[in-house]
Amino acid sequence: MDSLRDTPRPTKQQRGITLVEATVTLAILATLVCGAAPSFSGLIDRQRLRGLAAQLASDVQFVRSASVWRHEPLRLSFYSTAWGSCYVVHSGAPSQCSCVANAPAAVCTGDAVQLKTVSVPASGGLSVRVNVASILFDPLHGTSTPTGTLRVVSATAGSIHHVVNVLGRVRTCTPGGSPALPGYRSC
Protein backbone atom coordinates (compact mmCIF):
# COMPACT_ATOMS: atom_id res chain seq x y z
CA MET A 1 0.00 0.00 0.00
CA ASP A 2 2.91 2.31 0.53
CA SER A 3 3.73 2.04 -3.15
CA LEU A 4 0.46 3.79 -4.02
CA ARG A 5 1.49 6.79 -1.95
CA ASP A 6 4.78 7.04 -3.82
CA THR A 7 3.20 7.30 -7.25
CA PRO A 8 2.99 10.86 -8.53
CA ARG A 9 -0.43 12.38 -8.58
CA PRO A 10 -1.60 14.12 -11.73
CA THR A 11 -1.15 17.88 -11.40
CA LYS A 12 -4.16 20.11 -11.62
CA GLN A 13 -4.26 22.19 -14.87
CA GLN A 14 -4.34 25.97 -14.24
CA ARG A 15 -7.08 27.83 -16.08
CA GLY A 16 -6.87 31.60 -16.53
CA ILE A 17 -4.38 33.88 -14.81
CA THR A 18 -3.65 34.63 -11.21
CA LEU A 19 -4.35 37.94 -9.52
CA VAL A 20 -0.61 38.61 -9.24
CA GLU A 21 -0.10 38.09 -12.99
CA ALA A 22 -3.01 40.42 -13.82
CA THR A 23 -1.69 43.12 -11.48
CA VAL A 24 1.81 43.00 -12.96
CA THR A 25 0.41 43.16 -16.51
CA LEU A 26 -1.77 46.16 -15.67
CA ALA A 27 1.15 47.97 -14.02
CA ILE A 28 3.31 47.49 -17.13
CA LEU A 29 0.51 48.67 -19.43
CA ALA A 30 -0.16 51.74 -17.25
CA THR A 31 3.53 52.67 -17.40
CA LEU A 32 3.59 52.36 -21.20
CA VAL A 33 0.42 54.42 -21.65
CA CYS A 34 1.65 57.19 -19.34
CA GLY A 35 4.91 57.35 -21.28
CA ALA A 36 3.14 57.54 -24.66
CA ALA A 37 0.45 60.08 -23.70
CA PRO A 38 2.62 63.22 -24.09
CA SER A 39 3.71 62.20 -27.59
CA PHE A 40 0.07 61.62 -28.60
CA SER A 41 -0.83 65.04 -27.24
CA GLY A 42 1.93 66.65 -29.31
CA LEU A 43 0.81 64.73 -32.39
CA ILE A 44 -2.76 65.94 -31.95
CA ASP A 45 -1.60 69.57 -31.48
CA ARG A 46 0.53 69.41 -34.64
CA GLN A 47 -2.33 67.93 -36.66
CA ARG A 48 -4.74 70.62 -35.45
CA LEU A 49 -2.19 73.30 -36.41
CA ARG A 50 -1.69 71.78 -39.86
CA GLY A 51 -5.45 71.46 -40.36
CA LEU A 52 -6.20 75.10 -39.56
CA ALA A 53 -3.25 76.26 -41.68
CA ALA A 54 -4.48 74.19 -44.63
CA GLN A 55 -7.98 75.60 -44.21
CA LEU A 56 -6.67 79.19 -44.16
CA ALA A 57 -4.57 78.65 -47.31
CA SER A 58 -7.56 77.08 -49.02
CA ASP A 59 -9.79 80.00 -47.99
CA VAL A 60 -7.32 82.53 -49.43
CA GLN A 61 -7.58 80.73 -52.77
CA PHE A 62 -11.36 80.51 -52.37
CA VAL A 63 -11.80 84.27 -51.89
CA ARG A 64 -9.48 84.98 -54.80
CA SER A 65 -11.36 82.70 -57.22
CA ALA A 66 -14.80 83.72 -55.87
CA SER A 67 -13.94 87.36 -56.53
CA VAL A 68 -13.12 86.60 -60.18
CA TRP A 69 -16.09 84.26 -60.59
CA ARG A 70 -18.60 86.69 -59.04
CA HIS A 71 -17.08 89.75 -60.80
CA GLU A 72 -17.03 91.51 -57.45
CA PRO A 73 -14.27 92.71 -55.10
CA LEU A 74 -14.16 90.46 -52.04
CA ARG A 75 -12.28 90.76 -48.77
CA LEU A 76 -10.63 88.44 -46.34
CA SER A 77 -10.82 90.29 -43.01
CA PHE A 78 -9.21 89.22 -39.75
CA TYR A 79 -10.37 89.91 -36.21
CA SER A 80 -8.80 89.26 -32.84
CA THR A 81 -11.07 89.30 -29.79
CA ALA A 82 -10.98 88.28 -26.14
CA TRP A 83 -12.55 84.88 -26.92
CA GLY A 84 -10.17 84.11 -29.82
CA SER A 85 -9.60 85.03 -33.44
CA CYS A 86 -11.59 84.69 -36.64
CA TYR A 87 -11.60 85.61 -40.29
CA VAL A 88 -14.42 86.46 -42.64
CA VAL A 89 -14.76 86.28 -46.42
CA HIS A 90 -17.12 89.12 -47.37
CA SER A 91 -17.98 91.95 -49.72
CA GLY A 92 -17.98 95.60 -48.69
CA ALA A 93 -15.63 97.57 -46.47
CA PRO A 94 -13.49 95.91 -43.77
CA SER A 95 -15.41 97.66 -41.00
CA GLN A 96 -18.78 96.36 -42.22
CA CYS A 97 -18.34 92.83 -40.81
CA SER A 98 -17.28 91.57 -37.40
CA CYS A 99 -17.11 88.27 -35.57
CA VAL A 100 -19.30 87.31 -32.65
CA ALA A 101 -18.33 84.77 -29.96
CA ASN A 102 -19.89 81.32 -30.45
CA ALA A 103 -21.76 82.43 -33.57
CA PRO A 104 -21.60 80.42 -36.80
CA ALA A 105 -21.53 83.55 -38.98
CA ALA A 106 -20.19 87.08 -38.84
CA VAL A 107 -22.40 90.08 -38.39
CA CYS A 108 -22.33 92.36 -41.43
CA THR A 109 -23.92 95.78 -41.85
CA GLY A 110 -24.89 97.88 -44.84
CA ASP A 111 -24.53 96.21 -48.21
CA ALA A 112 -21.77 93.82 -47.07
CA VAL A 113 -22.45 90.12 -47.59
CA GLN A 114 -20.67 87.45 -45.57
CA LEU A 115 -19.67 84.36 -47.59
CA LYS A 116 -17.72 82.42 -44.98
CA THR A 117 -16.67 82.80 -41.36
CA VAL A 118 -14.06 80.74 -39.51
CA SER A 119 -13.83 81.15 -35.73
CA VAL A 120 -10.80 80.00 -33.75
CA PRO A 121 -11.55 79.96 -30.00
CA ALA A 122 -8.58 80.74 -27.74
CA SER A 123 -9.51 77.76 -25.57
CA GLY A 124 -8.32 75.43 -28.37
CA GLY A 125 -4.72 76.64 -28.11
CA LEU A 126 -4.68 77.96 -31.71
CA SER A 127 -4.89 81.50 -33.08
CA VAL A 128 -4.65 83.35 -36.36
CA ARG A 129 -2.31 86.35 -36.23
CA VAL A 130 -1.85 88.70 -39.15
CA ASN A 131 0.04 91.83 -40.10
CA VAL A 132 -2.93 93.24 -42.09
CA ALA A 133 -6.54 93.77 -41.01
CA SER A 134 -8.04 92.93 -44.40
CA ILE A 135 -6.97 91.84 -47.88
CA LEU A 136 -9.02 92.99 -50.89
CA PHE A 137 -9.11 90.71 -53.96
CA ASP A 138 -9.64 92.39 -57.33
CA PRO A 139 -12.11 90.58 -59.62
CA LEU A 140 -10.53 91.75 -62.87
CA HIS A 141 -6.96 90.58 -62.28
CA GLY A 142 -7.27 88.31 -59.21
CA THR A 143 -4.71 90.43 -57.39
CA SER A 144 -4.65 91.23 -53.69
CA THR A 145 -4.09 94.50 -51.87
CA PRO A 146 -2.22 94.74 -49.55
CA THR A 147 0.09 91.77 -49.36
CA GLY A 148 0.39 90.16 -45.95
CA THR A 149 1.65 87.40 -43.72
CA LEU A 150 -0.98 85.22 -42.10
CA ARG A 151 0.29 83.15 -39.16
CA VAL A 152 -1.47 80.16 -37.65
CA VAL A 153 0.01 79.78 -34.18
CA SER A 154 -0.23 76.92 -31.69
CA ALA A 155 0.76 77.45 -28.08
CA THR A 156 2.52 74.07 -28.08
CA ALA A 157 3.26 73.00 -31.69
CA GLY A 158 4.81 76.10 -33.30
CA SER A 159 3.46 78.15 -36.19
CA ILE A 160 2.82 78.00 -39.92
CA HIS A 161 3.03 81.19 -41.99
CA HIS A 162 1.21 81.98 -45.23
CA VAL A 163 2.72 84.83 -47.22
CA VAL A 164 0.13 86.27 -49.64
CA ASN A 165 1.75 88.13 -52.56
CA VAL A 166 0.28 90.81 -54.84
CA LEU A 167 -0.96 88.14 -57.28
CA GLY A 168 -2.99 86.57 -54.47
CA ARG A 169 -0.80 83.49 -54.35
CA VAL A 170 0.17 81.84 -51.08
CA ARG A 171 3.65 80.68 -50.05
CA THR A 172 3.63 78.53 -46.92
CA CYS A 173 6.57 78.17 -44.54
CA THR A 174 7.57 77.72 -40.90
CA PRO A 175 9.92 80.02 -39.03
CA GLY A 176 13.38 78.50 -38.79
CA GLY A 177 12.29 75.27 -40.49
CA SER A 178 10.75 73.92 -37.30
CA PRO A 179 11.77 70.26 -36.82
CA ALA A 180 8.40 69.65 -35.15
CA LEU A 181 6.68 70.46 -38.47
CA PRO A 182 8.54 68.64 -41.23
CA GLY A 183 7.48 69.17 -44.82
CA TYR A 184 7.42 72.98 -44.75
CA ARG A 185 9.99 75.41 -46.13
CA SER A 186 11.89 77.59 -43.75
CA CYS A 187 10.81 81.27 -43.65
Radius of gyration: 29 Å
How many domains in all? 1
Read across the widest sheet, the strand sequence of neighbours is: 5-2-1-7-8
- The CATH H-level superfamily is minor pseudopilin epsh domain
Give the oligomeric state. single chain
What is the residue-averaged pLDDT?
Answer: 86
By secondary-structure content and strand pairing, the structural class works out as alpha+beta
Order of helices and strands: HHEEEEEEEEEEEE
Q: What's the total helix number?
A: 2
**Uncertain spans, ≥5 residues at pLDDT below 50?**
none
- CATH T-level topology: minor pseudopilin epsh fold
Q: What is the CATH domain class?
A: Alpha Beta
Q: How do you describe this structure in short?
A:
Helix content is 30%, strand content 32%.
